[in-house]
Amino acid sequence: PVTDGSRELHSLCAQLEFLLQFDLKEKRSFFGQRKDYWDFLCQGLARCRQEHKGIHFVTSLDKLKTPVGRGRAFLRYCLVHRQLAESLQLCLLDAESLCEWYYARSPFLSPKRRAEILGTLYELDCVTFHLAL
């Protein structure tokens, strides 16, 4: 199993975060706080009309104060529960929402790249992750 001490884990998480932030449009909340991929994930999963346990878990953690911290915790939760590919796929279903959140260079806006990314993430479902949440 992959644990918190794994170098590969840190590299994987950094690459996932880079991918989710690449060509992300700058958006701000009503109070001026910069939105990040966490906000994109929340919005995308909320459209599915079912509460995602990962979102609920992360929002219940009082220590997490920033969107980036919440996003990282969500990625870890999804890896442990083998839900990363499925959760991201649900967020990527709505092309209009993707255009609202990402500029044209984002690989999520290319159907071919999106399929490649999701295919690779589904392969991670075979890996066991033992991470501190």
**Name of the CATH class:** Mainly Alpha
What radius of gyration results from the CA coordinates? 14 Å
Helix percentage: 55-70%
Spatial shape: globular
Structure summary:
It comes from Grantiella picta. Residues 3-133 form the RUN domain. This protein is mainly alpha-helical.
Describe the 3D structure.
Its main location: cytoplasm. One of its GO terms (cellular component) is late endosome. GO terms for molecular function: zinc ion binding. Keywords: Autophagy, Coiled coil, Cytoplasmic vesicle, Lysosome, Metal-binding, Zinc, Zinc-finger. The chain is mainly alpha-helical and 133 residues long. The protein has a single domain, classed as RUN domain (Methane Monooxygenase Hydroxylase, Chain G, domain 1, Up-down Bundle), CATH 1.20.58.900. The chain is 56% helix and 3% strand. It contains seven helices and two strands. A two-stranded parallel sheet has the order 1-2. Helix 2 crosses helix 4. The model has no long low-confidence stretch (mean pLDDT 93).
Any key phrases for this structure?
Methane Monooxygenase Hydroxylase, Chain G, domain 1, cytoplasmic vesicle, 133 residues, single chain, autophagy
